[in-house]
Amino acid sequence: MSRDQHDDAEILDAELVEDGQLAPAAAAPARFLVDQHTVLRPGQPIPTTADPVQRYTERDLYVSDETSQALDEAEEEGSAPRRTAMNGFEAWCASVGRVANPCTTATFTEYGAHLMRRQLKVSTIKNYMSLIRTSMEPGKQPDNSQYLILLAHYRSKSKRAVRRKEAFPITMPYLVPMMEKAEADGRPIGWRDSALLAFGYRFLGRSVEDVDLDIEDLTVTDNQVTVWLAEDKTHKDEDQTIPLHDRPDLNLVFRMRRWLDYLAEQGITTGPVFREVLRNGKVAFSETRAKKATKRGDYLRPQTVNDRVKKWFYAAGLKTDGRPVSSHGLRAGGATDLAESKATAKELEAAGRWAEGSPIPGTVYVRPVKNRSHDPFSKVPVYGAEA
Length: 387
Fold this sequence. Notes:
single chain; mainly alpha; hpI Integrase, Chain A; 2 domains; three-stranded antiparallel beta sheet; 14 helices; 3 strands; 4% strand; globular
């Protein structure tokens, strides 16, 4: 082909455009859009780049002001344990000049080592590190493989790291003097605390479950308090209706009614059951005490329950066997009393709402009671004793 013929071919293949315009680029050949996650039904065509593209407008990209505000509130509140873990992590990162969120794998690993140097328990470290890692945005979470290697080594070298120190169980012989002491001077705060103690023991609840309850969640009749529980630690998105039968030594109905009646006298018939009580006996409202208001509003903090349990335990002149006194002792006390009354692990599991098949009721409560009452060496004759 001559040069003139070659030029003619180029002209014939070209696309004519208006002056000042560029010719569109030739379309790329269609490619298959598949990866290891693609699942097709029989007869369904394989998607390609030639398929029509879904077009979105601004309406598809924005959420409403109301939804945006709800998201902000949810992100701000978070869970109390998650916030606690992140607060500690962010403070440490600031002190050593590292970025907290999203953090690098090296920072995450170094913080795990930092917690181990503080001689924290393995269970505590695992909980903190899990909360920190899952607080990062999806796709930006650090790799935890190096930290887990350190943790395994720490577990094998530190006896204190795996030691569990259970809360002292506040059984009925301890609970009754505490309730009596709380209401001895007839103040409303004592009425609240004695109701809280009785309820915590009978409900076998975790502190946060006790203080998150609303008045609307309770139905008080002559012989029981019925609790509607939206969810708990082991029953997410699963509501429960729990009858708490009263007993003469607990006086749960009387104590709860007296407290709820006191709230009603101040016009409080909805919202949190257990609230802060001021020195003058009045119930505090978050809007009237802006300096003290917290994210929990009028709901008591779980730490407040912990503090009140300790106060009345020692005010009643009680002593422990070395185990710490805490609000968890109410749950442990009720479970211990059930175990000593020969309740089975399955019955305990249901009463305390542990996860199905949880080893805790059997290993922490039922088995120790059996071990205390059974001595295999009792079968060995006492040396020198008469037959």
